[in-house]
Design goal:
The chain is α+β, with helices and mostly antiparallel strands and about 650 residues long. Helices cover about 15% and strands about 30% of the residues. A hairpin with a 2-residue loop joins strand 35 and strand 36. Belongs to the WD repeat coronin family. Pfam families: DUF1899 (PF08953), WD40 (PF00400), WD40_4 (PF16300). This is Coronin.
């Protein structure tokens, strides 16, 4: 709509031309969401007396769905979070049961988008745990998790559920790795180790075929999770400061939104196009505050909400497909600063109030959680289809195995009016998940076990020690625990031979084996047909492989060899002492890095052996009732 002008002039006059140019330059953009405003509820609808965590981590510390509200709380020793029914507003009892099973502080929590009773949590104890909340809430402290995922070597800062596939979870740790988990099997699918520094954020696109990450190395990456490869990557952004910055996918538009601090400490936002990641499509300054901007995108209304930790306001922008791509709408200002925000899924919003978004504000200075409703002003309370398009439902589009096999399918949408399904997305095939050798690009090991809560027949549990296990440690197999905590995983490599390595001035670059023969380093793949678990190693079984590696690569043997070699190098090259010392340092690092890898691989062998034995035990348990039925039938026939 153009602004009307009252200047009268002839069409051919210079004043007329100026008026036309003025009209073209100044236009008012029409928008249904221009007048969105925030609404604070009454005190009895807030949640009081909750000791919100004081951790300085840049996550939300809050998760919410139409059934439950979960918030990370301040505890002494270990980590816990509170999960209460959404209807239990008012003053919360200090003795309310908590979810307490982590050995470290909880850093992030997320509800399963397809099951309101399932919630995942990540912690400083390097684990990710999945919990099941009873339908009527917790009556006692919950310490029994249903899945325990071990794989990160440092604390796990962020987790994200897959938007379309069921039981797929993505985690990012401070070990610079992202791990893709199949929660249903309690196994990792892939390990993404393309980052050179700390990962600050993760965000899935709408169909879950890609996810974006922002990293401390000042690069924006778009990653294919099934191939564990970078699909698009921005160059190093020199205008970024040293603070954490965030990225979020803009639905299915092929664009990514970022919020960051510039090197001059100004807060800015940018929009990137995946087809050209050399520079952002648009960059816009916000202010010069020091807090981190957290973006929250509503893909139904295409509105981006920006809230800073420690700020007392929420800005919102409308995202457009045409330049300038972002349009500032308004700000909702309150009197108290916020520590984080929980976002209610769209299916939990109140359509009678024309509520398009609901935040749960964690107060930074009070033990208070306050619902904030973003409302579009309308005169009637009837259902408005123009502001409530079909939204994501609780029906998963794919199972975990279907998605891992390479299938991609959009979200199944539902109507906000009556909840019926409005679409049937087509299934498309992604690129091949497996390489030509039928192995994943980075095949991880099994790190946790599923619960076996069935009664075991007598004699079905072997009392023989596994590889790398003593007889005194076999009793834990008789305990039907929900999960077994296993060591960290490492990525897979090919068989590498170091038999014929070059030498430097008569000094071998690799230490000889104790028997005097050249050693061959074997790094096996779980998918390889010659893995120790299938007796492919020369020696007959995994025990002989372990004894061979213990003899050839023991720490004492490496230490003795390094001392002897340092002495030879110092006496033979006195004139180049400094150069040799530098080379010696690099070689020492390489040797001990190989030693760590071999130690991790020996653990993998033991874990594989345990997994095989456990599967055999499960098969025997399943066969037992079938055998009984056959016996009963035979007796009846006789």
């Amino acid at each position: 709509m153009e602004i009307p002008l009252s200047v009268e002039s002839s069409p051919s006059s210079p004043c007329s031309e100026n008026n036309r140019s003025f009209q073209m330059a100044f236009k008012i953009r029409s928008s249904k969401f221009r007048h969105i405003y925030g609404s604070i509820p009454k005190k009895d609808l807030c949640y009081e007396n909750i000791k919100i965590t004081r951790n300085t981590h840049d996550s939300n510390f809050c998760a919410v769905n139409p059934k439950f509200l979960a918030v990370v709380t301040e505890t002494g020793g270990g980590g816990s979070f509170l999960c209460i029914p959404l209807r239990s507003s008012g003053r919360v009892d200090p003795k309310t049961p908590h979810v307490c099973g982590h050995a470290g502080v909880v850093l992030d929590i997320k509800f399963n988008p397809f099951n309101d009773n399932i919630i995942a949590s990540s912690s400083e104890d390097c684990t990710v745990k999945v919990w099941s909340i009873p339908e009527d809430g917790l009556k006692t402290n919950l310490s029994e998790w249903i899945v325990d995922l071990h794989g990160h070597k440092r604390r796990v800062g962020y987790i994200e559920w897959h938007p379309t596939a069921e039981n797929i979870l993505l985690s990012a740790g401070f070990d610079y790795k992202c791990v893709l988990w199949n929660v249903e099997q309690a196994e990792p699918v892939n390990v993404i180790s393309c980052h050179d520094n700390t990962v600050f954020s993760m965000s899935w696109n709408q169909d879950g075929s890609l996810f974006s990450t922002s990293c401390k190395d000042k690069k924006l990456r778009v990653i294919d999770p099934r191939m564990a490869r970078v699909a698009a990557e921005s160059p190093v952004q020199d205008n970024l400061g040293s603070r954490a910055w965030k990225s979020v996918f803009l639905g299915d538009t092929g664009r990514v939104f970022t919020s960051f601090h510039s090197r001059f400490c100004d807060r800015e936002i940018a929009v990137w196009d995946l087809k050209n990641m050399s520079a952002p499509m648009r960059t816009e300054g916000i202010d010069n505050s020091s807090s981190i901007l957290l973006p929250y995108y509503d893909q139904d209304t295409k509105i981006m909400y920006l809230a800073g930790k420690g700020d007392s306001n929420i800005r919102y922008f409308e995202i457009d497909d045409e330049s300038p791509y972002t349009h500032y709408l308004n700000s909702f200002i309150t009197s108290d600063p916020q520590r984080g925000l929980g976002v209610m899924p769209k299916r939990g919003c109140n359509t009678e109030r024309c509520e398009v978004m609901r935040f749960y504000k964690l107060h930074a200075s009070k033990n208070l959680i306050e619902p904030l409703s973003m409302i579009v002003p309308r005169k009637s309370s009837v259902f408005h289809e123009d502001i409530y398009p079909p939204t994501a439902s609780q029906i998963p589009s794919l199972s975990a195995d279907e998605w891992i096999s390479g299938q991609t399918r959009g979200q199944i949408l539902m109507s906000m009016l009556d909840g019926h399904v409005t679409n049937s997305p087509k299934v498309s095939s992604a690129k091949a998940v497996q390489n030509k050798d039928s192995s994943l690009s980075q095949a991880p090991t099994i790190t946790t076990y599923k619960a076996v809560n069935r009664p075991r027949p007598e004699g079905s549990v072997s009392t023989q020690p596994y590889a790398g296990e003593t007889t005194a440690n076999t009793n834990h197999r008789n305990i039907p625990a929900s999960l077994r905590n296993i060591k960290q995983l490492s990525t897979n490599e090919e068989f590498v031979s170091i038999k014929d390595e070059p030498q430097s001035n008569g000094i071998p670059l690799e230490p000889p084996s104790p028997s005097g023969q050249s050693t061959v380093k074997k790094v096996w793949s779980p998918a390889s047909p010659k893995s120790p678990a299938t007796n492919g190693f020369a020696g007959g079984d995994s025990d002989s492989y372990t004894r061979h590696q213990n003899a050839a690569f023991s720490p004492g043997f490496f230490q003795a060899y390094l001392i002897k070699r340092d002495h030879q190098m110092s006496t033979s090259r006195g004139c180049h002492r400094n150069t040799q010392c530098n080379q010696n340092g690099h070689l020492r690092k390489a040797y001990f890095k190989q030693l760590e890898e071999i130690s991790s691989l020996k653990e993998q062998i033991s874990l594989k052996d345990k997994r095989i034995r456990q599967l055999e035990e499960e098969i025997s348990v399943l066969k037992l009732p079938i055998a009984r039925e056959i016996n009963v039938q035979d007796q009846s026939e006789c």
